[in-house]
């Protein structure tokens, strides 16, 4: 048996697609199933796959798939061309699409929308297995298994906008945190930037005079998150990783699609949703952090977050990919 992944990432589309596929591929490796990655986007995404040692990494071309039939092919890209998916479906025993919100959703054998709902109704006679919700979000199971302790006070604040920070919000948020940090001199800001982050100059300028520690390549992301007392993050895959660990989070994003996820997490009490970043975000961010200064409030948020994202979504997805669900 062989499972293929067609995905990619870059500073514009982000890196969440790649990290989801990595979580699935590592579970497949544990079961002895070989995988092959076919990559679009920047070389940085391909390098990330190679670093994990997860099988051959091919580049997308006119005919990217090797000759022969794949047992399963997972396509993790938004709104794929239905004609392309129909072609790929003929080459795969099972075609699985992740977070396809377009017509391609109904071309696949299995369509899983962990983050973004598909607004297109099921066509008459369609037999696609369609599931959705945060229970099917593919993150590494280690996030859900990571112990987390709510400490009496906030000493470590994580600031991140995911693997790329498409909208360059990390430096903006750091500047907006200045008044709050002036009132909380014992707090250190841990800024995490992903492999496709490209706003280094702005981040350096925004960090001047602040208690900031920058992190880029971390071997144990779950363990790193567990060392944080609160997080300020976007609404993509990393927000769900934080929820699985139990880190109380304040969420704001520049990406309209991510508003679904921030609202879902907040509705269950697992995060504070500030919505789309705007002129009043700094003031609202300070108020949210003041609210989370209470250990009791953070404890409630942490418990709700872990109940909402249990970290087992990748295993549920694996059953669907392998035809066991």
From TrEMBL:
<protein>
    <recommendedName>
        <fullName>UDP-2,4-diacetamido-2,4, 6-trideoxy-beta-L-altropyranose hydrolase</fullName>
    </recommendedName>
</protein>
<dbReference type="GO" id="GO:0016757">
    <property type="term" value="F:glycosyltransferase activity"/>
</dbReference>
């Amino acid at each position: 048996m062989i499972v293929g992944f067609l995905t990619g990432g870059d500073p514009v589309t982000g890196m969440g697609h790649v990290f989801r596929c990595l979580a699935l591929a590592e579970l497949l490796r544990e079961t002895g199933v070989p995988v092959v990655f076919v990559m679009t986007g920047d070389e940085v995404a391909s390098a990330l796959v190679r670093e994990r040692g997860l099988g051959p990494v091919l580049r997308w071309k006119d005919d990217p798939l090797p000759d022969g039939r794949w047992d399963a092919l997972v396509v993790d890209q938004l709104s794929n061309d239905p004609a392309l998916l129909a072609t790929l479906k003929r080459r795969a025993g099972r075609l699985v699409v992740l977070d396809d919100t377009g017509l391609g959703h109904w071309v696949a054998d299995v369509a899983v929308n962990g983050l973004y709902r598909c607004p297109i109704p099921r066509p008459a006679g369609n037999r696609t297995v369609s599931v959705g919700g945060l229970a099917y979000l593919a993150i590494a199971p280690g996030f859900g298994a990571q112990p987390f302790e709510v400490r009496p006070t906030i000493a470590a604040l994580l600031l991140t906008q995911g693997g790329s920070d498409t909208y360059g919000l990390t430096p903006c948020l750091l500047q907006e945190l200045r008044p709050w940090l002036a009132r909380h001199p014992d707090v250190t800001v841990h800024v995490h930037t992903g492999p496709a982050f490209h706003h280094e100059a702005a981040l350096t300028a925004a960090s001047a005079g602040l208690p900031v520690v920058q992190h880029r390549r971390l071997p144990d992301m779950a363990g790193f998150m567990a060392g944080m007392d609160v997080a300020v993050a976007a609404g993509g895959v990393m927000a769900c990783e934080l929820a699985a660990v139990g880190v109380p989070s304040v969420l704001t994003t520049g990406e309209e699609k991510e508003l679904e996820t921030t609202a879902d997490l907040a509705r269950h009490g697992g995060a504070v949703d500030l919505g789309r970043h705007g002129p009043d975000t700094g003031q609202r961010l300070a108020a949210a952090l003041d609210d989370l200064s209470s250990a009791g409030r953070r404890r409630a948020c942490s418990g709700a977050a872990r109940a909402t994202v249990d970290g087992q979504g990748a295993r549920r997805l694996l059953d669907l990919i392998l035809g066991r669900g």
